[in-house]
Structure formats: structure tokens, C-alpha cells
Amino acid sequence: MKDTIKVINLETLKQGFVFVCSEATQDECLARMLFGSTWAYEDEVLEVKEGDLGFLYNIDTDILFGVFEAVSDGSLDIEPEAWGGRFPAQVRVRWMEEHEPIKDARFLFRKLRIKFGNFLLTPQQVNNLRSAFERVPASEENFRKKYPRKYRAQDGHYVRTKSEAIIDNWLYNHLIVHAYERKVPIEENMYCDFFIPQGKCYIEYWGMKEKQYLKRKKKKRDLYHNYKLNLIELTEKDIENIDDVLPKKLMQFLPNTFKIT
Questions:
Q1: What tens digit of pLDDT does each residue of 127-155 get?
Q2: 98 with 44, same domain?
Q3: Judgement on whether residues 158 and 80 belong to the same structural domain of the protein
Q4: Are residues 127 and 20 in the same domain?
Q5: Between 176 and which of 43, 58, 151, 171 could a Cys-Cys bridge form, CB atoms 3.0 to 4.6 Å apart?
Q6: Phi, psi of 169 (to 5 degrees)
Q7: Does one domain contain both 24 and 118?
Q8: How far is CA 172 from CA 14, 176, 192, 244, in A?
Q9: Total domain count for the chain?
Q10: Which residues contact 155 (CB under 8 A, 6 or more apart)?
């Protein structure tokens, strides 16, 4: 069954907004269902109207949350005590559609030609961002819900298994730039476990043996093969010997001048 993407009627859609949070403020934003900004953005926040759609961007982790709906107009000090009073320009929100957060959000902003730092969004930009969330296929969404990201790696990435945390930490400690759960740039909707820009290669950790997982594994392997993408495959046994296994696999794709420290 094909994935369906709901398209918003741009004639009726109002403008949208992106609030910025940090690791220190994200939980309070989501717990209060309240977004806030500094006095510098007062004029932009006051332009937000009830019913506008919005997103929350964590500047520390480069993660975008969505989709939210404003349930109040932008105002000052809806909750004066929130965040210790540091962000008085505020909007009350609710979840309109709660999707899996999008990693590498800056890359998405560039792809959609949304200038980083823009607070207000055009109706078209809102539609494009909302569609980006909805492109996660149902099978992938179900997998992500079943195995939530609950393990925090040393670089701040939240991953789904202890073995993925070991991989992430190994890459981080060996100064290898990497992205977690990036969408693979192919026609089909597929997300890798890790992407290594320097080697233009992908890492997949295969750690389960249940029937549905093995079907998902075969489909992903076939897509990597069909598109002639560089793939490194790791198993639980490889994780036990990661210091020996991963450098050898990576050096097949990393530049000759690159030295793994």
C-alpha cells in the first residue's frame, strides 16, 4: 500500500512559525505546551494568530518537532514564570499531528529553501515542512514507535539500542562526522542508521531476527544494492569487536588521506 501525503489547501492556510529551543528548554516547552522567545522577536511572535501551524527546533540537537497548532494569539507573558522569565514573547500550542522528530533539520531547511533563523513561514513553507514529516512511511513509523530513541550517545544523539549507542560513541570518539537516521536520497522512503559524509557511505546495524524485521532488512539491503550505495553492515558480533571491525570497513570508503585516530 502506497504512503499517502495529505496536502493543505494553500488558499485557506495561514502563515506558520518556527520557535527555537535548546536542550535546557525543550522539555519545558513540551510540558507546558508553550513556546517562547526573547524580546528581540516580540514583533514576529505577536503576528502569530490562533490556528497558525508551527514547529519547534532544538538548536543543540538539530531536531525539528511538529506539527503544532497555535491555540492562542502571540502575546506577552502568557505564563510569566516560564523559563525563569527569560522568554516573555509566547504562544500557547497543542499537538496537531505528533510525528517522529526530524533529524538534521538544517539540511531540511536548506533543501526546502527556508532561510535558517526565519521565525515566520509562508503557507507554502508550512505545507512543505508538514509534508516532510508525513513522508515517513507507515512501516517505518511503526518500527520507530516500537523501538523509541531512549539511549543518549556522548554527542547528544538519541538512538534506539545500546549497540547503536556503541557505534555512535565510537564514531564520535574517533572524530568521524556522522548523522543518525538520515533519509537516504532515493525515490523510496528509507532511513539509514548512520550516514558518514566523508566516505559517502551508510552504516546499518542488524540486531534482530524477528520475521517483520528480517523483511525490513531485506528490503533495505535491496535498495542499497539497486542504487549502488556504499553500505557497511554490522551485527552484534561486530559490535563485540568494533575496534577491529569498523575501521577496516570504513577505510574502504574514506579518503586515503583520512587517518582514524
A1: 888 888 766 555 566 676 677 888 999 98
A2: yes
A3: no
A4: yes
A5: 171
A6: -65, -40
A7: yes
A8: 42, 6, 17, 16
A9: 2
A10: 168, 169, 172
Q: What is the CATH number of the domain that holds 164?
A: 3.40.960.10
pTM, two decimals, is 0.51
Range of the domain at 37: 16-134
Q: The C-alpha cell of 24 is what? A: 535546557
The stretches in the chain having pLDDT less than 50 are 1-11
Phi first, then psi: give them for residue 237, nearest 5 degrees.
-65, -40
pLDDT tens digits along 88-126: 999 999 888 777 788 889 988 988 889 877 789 999 899
- Are 102 and 177 in a shared domain? no
Cα–Cα distance for residue pair 101/67, rounded to 1 Å: 10
The cell 556522522 sits on which residue? 178
| Per-residue model confidence (pLDDT) at position 260 | 86
Q: Are residues 149 and 128 in the same domain?
A: no
Which of 95, 118, 134 marks a domain boundary?
134
